[in-house]
Amino acid sequence: MKRSAKTLYGSLLLLLAVAVALGAIAYIKYQQIQAAMAQPPPPEMPVAVSLFEAVSTTVRRKTTVVGTVLAPRTVTLRNEESGTVTEVLMQPGGRVKSGETLVIMDTRVEQAQLDAALATLTESKSNLSRAERLAESSAVSREVLDAATASLARSKAEVSRLEAIIERKQLLAPFEARVGLFQLHTGQYLDVGSELVTLEGTDEFLLVDFAVPAHVADTLSVGSEVAMRASRGGTVLPARIDAMDSRADAESRLLTMRAKLQSPPATLLPGDSVLVTVAYGEPQPVTLVPQTAVRRGPSGESVFVARAVGDEGALRAVSIPIVTAANDGQRSQVVRGLAAGDQVVSDGSFKVQEGSLLKAVQP
Question: What is each CA distance from 82 to 76, 100, 182, 362, in whole angstroms?
Fold first, then answer.
């Protein structure tokens, strides 16, 4: 009995000691929390950003369409006479000069006929000369002289015909050009009008055909400037409208225009497509900002503007909703929401929230 009482008493003392220890620990933690809460908050760290001063200017509305590159001179080479190919003097993808011989066809039959025609021509000349001498002494009638004259004319015409056939069996380059791909071989027989190869002129300019809506075409004329790019973000190539179609397409209601591109890059070839940007209409006032400054979300477009607040003039981020008209790949044209001189957050806007403390750094 005494032993059980001692055990119970010891247990109570142990529990009391544990409770006192836990209470002491809780009290210490409470004091630490109160001390931490009494400390002032840590200083706010500014977000490093680049600022851009919005610029006011005037621009014309623009539309971008796809254009097709054309060579100023293009011809599909065809043979005017049938026959067998004896020589192919051009190379696929090569360049040829104006007047250069490209294909030679077999002319042995025509050459033999020409030799016979030349002999007949010589005979006709002799007959006419003899008839003229005899006519002077009235030894032959006028009809004989006329027949000899007609025979000479027919002989000359036959010689000219055969010479023309032989000439047409040598195909020449009509202008300096780039040769397309072809399948033409020595010994190949060609019917009249066979398509042999396409020649694209190598002039110092290219033509570009593109179509625009009627409301855009109404503001353009021959000589109007357009801008071309071989790809998005590529080098801008200036060009001028050289001609306009006489009527719009009945289905699309688009009007086709042709622009002349001087000194095109060597990589731009006939048949390529380019992006044609056309400015039209009256100039409109806009505010220019970097394209990286514009943020897009479900509620629309916006930018962060740095505004000085407080007595110390600290810069804070303020979100401003805007409306943009277009961009050129580097600058966005803002038509509503900004004013010239606003300090817009350009680089680093993705790190900024409404009211963030800002630190301007050099881009």
Answer: 17, 21, 18, 75
* CATH code linked to domain 77-101+174-199: 2.40.50.100
SS3 49: strand
Own/partner pairs, 333-338, CB within 8 angstroms, 24+ separation: 333/59, 333/286, 333/287, 333/288, 334/54, 334/286, 334/287, 334/288, 334/289, 334/303, 335/284, 335/286, 335/287, 337/302, 337/303, 338/54, 338/287, 338/289, 338/303, 338/305
DSSP state at residue 105 = E
For residues 190 and 82, the answer to whether their CB atoms sit within 8 Å is yes
- Taking the C-alpha atoms of residue 208 and residue 32, their distance in angstroms, rounded to an integer, is 78
The answer for residues whose C-beta is within 8 angstroms of residue 147's C-beta and 6 or more apart is: 131
Write out pLDDT tens, residues 261-287: 998 988 888 999 999 999 888 888 988
pTM for the full predicted model: 0.65
- Residue 350 sits at φ, ψ, to 5 deg, of -70, -15
The series of mean pLDDT values per 10 residues for the chain, 363 residues long, is 66 77 81 71 77 88 91 94 95 94 95 94 88 75 82 92 94 94 94 94 93 91 92 83 92 94 89 92 88 88 86 81 82 88 85 83 76
Asked if the 107-168 domain carries CATH number 2.60.40.10, the reply is: no
Looking at CATH, the fold of the domain delimited by 63-72+201-281 is given as: Elongation Factor Tu (Ef-tu); domain 3 (2.40.30)
Question: How many helical (H) and strand (E) elements, i.e. helices and strands, does the chain have?
Answer: 4, 22
| pLDDT of the residue at 90 | 95
Domain 47-59+285-360 falls under CATH 2.40.420.20 = yes
